[in-house]
């Protein structure tokens, strides 16, 4: 928020990055920085409430936070959780905690603390009294000379796409509106199963990329706004995605049932690509080989261009700026 910019603390600011990136970085000393990010699970919790299945949204909470912190080249080390509930049900809280633990173990982070708030005046469930909200706050460590901002990206660099596990934790309001019958079976799974599929955790794979000899010039978590998230990188380039990854079934259903046009789909959802890495063209094959064991289906999906501030999806006949996609 603009009103929070330039807060006067009476001492020099520790902020290293400007606002708008995936995570903030504060200077600890002359060589080390502290990366910070905060995010929640959104209205995916409503699907969990309706189905009475709360053991996976904790994974989403961890994923949404560590996937952002890793984008600045930091190593996520810990997540604090905040759970607000309508009613403190021990069984429900245990399920949520189970997901948080699974996510933390997969991401390689600790959960050293958190907060539980019982707020029946604010939280109303679907159905009541099963309402809750779930947020996380992640911290990571990064060498100041190793921060990844996107500033070194050049036209002609390769764009590597890592597959999503499905809808992840963005666009659930639109998804729920078009796929209301959570018990409907589609291709051997229920709609509820498709919507609750946990968000993929990319941090371990990206740690390996950052530790390799590959030049990771830009890292982007593809969440709400889809591929327009690439424009959050500090790069004076455009992005042309001419070989997109396979689109998962859930997005095809949303498009079909809701009559949702491609421009809206690609603005709201990840459309099968949950994370992008920008590397020199000569490093592309090595990057795919390194990332594929953890995320099968990783592939080169496009390249950077001289059309700064533009995201092109030629197969979908879409051209996007920070204001959105247009056909």
Write out the CATH superfamily name of the largest domain. Answer: PurM-like C-terminal domain
List unreliable stretches of 5+ residues: none
Estimate percent helicity. Answer: 25-40%
Q: State the major sheet.
A: 8 strands, mixed
Number of helical regions? 9
**Which H/E pattern describes the elements?**
EEHHEHEEEHEEHHEEHHEHEEEE
Mean pLDDT: 95
Which word captures the global form?
globular
Main structural class = alpha+beta
From the alpha carbons, calculate the radius of gyration and give it in angstroms.
Answer: 20 Å
Share of β-strand residues: 25-35%
CATH top level of the largest domain is Alpha Beta
Q: Measure the end-to-end span.
A: 31 Å
Number of domains: 2
In words, what does this structure look like?
By secondary structure, the protein is of the alpha+beta class. It folds into two domains: 10-146, PurM-like, N-terminal domain (60s Ribosomal Protein L30, Chain: A, 2-Layer Sandwich), CATH 3.30.1330; 158-326, Alpha-Beta Complex (Phosphoribosyl-aminoimidazole Synthetase, Chain A, domain 2), CATH 3.90.650. Helices cover 26% and strands 25% of the residues. The protein has nine helices and 15 strands. The protein has helices at residues 44-51, 57-69, 90-107, 172-178, 191-196, 203-211, 249-258, 262-268, 284-291, and strands at 24-27, 32-40, 75-85, 114-118, 132-143, 158-163, 185-186, 189-190, 218-221, 238-241, 273-279, 299-305, 311-313, 318-321, 324-326. An eight-stranded mixed beta sheet has the order 9-11-6-12-10-13-14-15, sandwiched between helices. A five-stranded mixed beta sheet has the order 1-2-5-3-4, covered by helices on one side. Strands 7-8 form a two-stranded antiparallel ribbon. Strand 1 and strand 2 form a beta hairpin. Helix 4 (172-178) packs across helix 7. The chain is globular.
